Input
Amino acid sequence: MAFINGPVPESFERRVTATAREFERDLRQAWPAVQGSAEARRLSLQEGAQMLVIELEPAGVRRLGLFELPQLIVRYRFGPGEEAVRRVLLARLDRAMQKGGG
Output
């Protein structure tokens, strides 16, 4: 989900195809100074004065025939700050965590 045509809200959620551990691994590759853990289901990072807290909730498995994809609900909550800063931070994370595909 990209916020191309509108502002990035202070909080929102996404459903992603990953386990909590996979999400944490990819997030740490994108942003090495991440605090928290997938095990605790809470991660956070900071860019300047802008704080972002990410909460993870396993959401079962999606089945496509014999193929199984783990689902994860990811809740993003930004601390106080400007929308433009949220937009830049989220775009950076999205680009860094983007997987292959069409």
